Amino acid sequence: MPNLVAYSVHGQVAVLTIENPPVNALSPGVPEGISEGLKAANWDPAIQAIVLIGGGRTFIAGADIREFEKIHAGQGGSLASVLTCIADLDASGKPVVAAIHGTAFGGGLEVAMACSYRVAATSAQVGQPEVKLGIIPGGEGTQRLPRLAGVGKALDMCCFGEPVSAPDAYQAGIVDDLIEGDLLAGAVAFAERIAALPVPRASQRQDRLGTAEANATLFAEFRAAANKRLRGQQAPHAAIEAIQAATELPFAEGCAKEAEIFDRCLHADQSKALVHAFFGERAVAKIPFLAKDTPVLPIKRAAVIGAGTMGGGIAMVYANAGIPVILKETTQEALDRGVATIARNYANSVKRGRFSQAFVEERLKLIHPQLDYYNFGEVDIVVEAVFENMELKKHIFADVDKFAKSDCILASNTSTLNIDEIASVTSRPDCVVGHHFFSPANVMRLLEIVRGKATNATVLATSMDLARRLKKVGVLAGNCRGFIGNRMFFPYCREAIFLVEEGNTPEEVDRALYEWGMAMGPLAVQDLAGLDVGWRIRKEYQHLEQPGVRYPELDTLLCERGHYGQKTGAGFFLYDEHRKPSPNPEVIALAQEYAAKAGIPQRKSTPEQIVERCLRALFDEGKQLLAEGIALRSVDIDIVYISGYGFPAWRGGPMKYAELVGWK
Ligand code: NAI
User: Fold this and answer.
1) Could you give all domains of the chain from N- to C-terminal order, each with its CATH number?
2) How far is the CA of 640 from the centre of ligand 1 (A)?
3) Which residues of 51-82 are buried (b: 16+ CB within 10 A; e: fewer)?
4) pLDDT tens digits for range 53-105
């Protein structure tokens, strides 16, 4: 095993420098190297104190997540050497100063907390983000953090996993000093100052552990907050349990309890799902058939056609990434409406503290509203987001083809239409691609990149790179009706409607899936998107419906009565002026009447049956997409659903979930 920790001597201070680029993760070789360095420094009588610092751009950014993946796959993987290293740090006879820059997350912070002192660059961040992988800190972090920072701060950091800035960590008592300027020099000077003092150990502190009464209130508050913010997830509750142990048990027993809880979480499906999602986001960015040296075009200027719901949002996405963007409409009225919506959305972001006023003003200057094709010859990409109508889209692509420069990417935001047919009206079908954003485009992270039969490699590589620049998760999809996401969404919604036609109420169906973990029930989603959208699509494709196959009717019946969902105040649910839903009795009556006429047997399904039926429809369509090559890998499908359809990451996505529950 390589020793990834360098040893050097600065006067009477030994410096251990972790050299495991890029982020100094605790891979095999790092904890062993720290233990060895400690031994050498403790043995050398000339050394008075020790500094532990990260080489390169950061302290230890965290555990090596690949080790978790190995454990999940039953392929070895172990955190034993990390625990030994932490015990060695805690036992060091000479004081150890952790010098933190960049990030000290997870195992990184746990190593730092086992040191005698911590100093940090003011720009550094610390945190215990394990909950995001479905686990709790497993390197005694749940036992040391409350001893350093108090129970409330430890609960906040371990339950929600958000990073804490160095000044905040200093205030909280996690960090003992902030260092301006050269971190190593500052840390060595600090080490010299404390060298003669008795060595403090976080494990021996009791003074910040609070009273039983105050802690009971905190635990209850954080349980309630976790149920709200991380609905359905076990890890935040496991973290509370471990921190509770820190307040009730001696240190060593608390650590044993943490180890037991950590193990339980690590082997649970939620952790397998979240680790899968974590690596999945990275995996989808790799397109196996694209050569590494495929050129990526610089996208410096963009144009969006259509300033409606999607076009306005897409223009904001470009502006937020600092890319100037033309926003083209047909009428002044539609343009003004689109620009007003953008301004309102930005104003809300300022109100909610997401952006500063100055940032928003800069972004607004990057958006150029206009009614003609002026300057279209200058842009590197055009994104079309007009009505979902093939003739209109063809007309626009033929126009754009005349004005755009020869290597300009022509992208359509269509949600269902055939990219090849759109491309056929241009002189450069190889430059045409689908860029399918999700509503609201400035919020939802998914960008489906739809590959037409002629789309060239440069356009695909540029699209994947652009997704990253736009802070989206780009997933490549083949060209078919609905691509990956919407094609799977149709059968999922179909089952939800069937369930209502069979006598379940819309509330029962939506509640079952919501409680299972979906961000929204499928019927409420359809009400939000507009039932008329599906109705129009259905009419367009009616000729493809096969005799003897059951299709959902209830949504059509609602549309025929003018109930399009939220926009008309009624759909599967009724909506008041604040869009608050309530049951729509007309739905039940319509369903019963239709079921009687069509001879659909009435049966109530349990919540478990509802969930299984809808999710199996997702899974089955997903398998079909893989068989057809529309989705490259099952992980692409999972990431589409997690980042675009409110599928809970802790369930892993439709395909991972099916694997975890053993569906074939
Ligand atoms: P929308 O109706 O809100 O906006 C369409 C806009 O295009 C209107 O403002 C209209 O004036 C404008 N327009 C029409 N013809 C034009 C032309 N020749 N030149 C310039 N502008 C023109 O529609 P929405 O919802 O924004 O949808 C746009 C596209 O995005 C559709 O293809 C839709 O399928 C797709 N999409 C919609 C999603 C949604 O949730 N609404 C999600 C993902 C994709």
Assistant:
1) 5-267 (3.90.226.10), 302-477 (3.40.50.720), 485-629 (1.10.1040.50)
2) 22
3) bbbbeeebbbbbbbeebbbebbeeeebebebb
4) 999 999 999 988 888 888 878 887 778 999 999 999 999 999 999 999 999 99
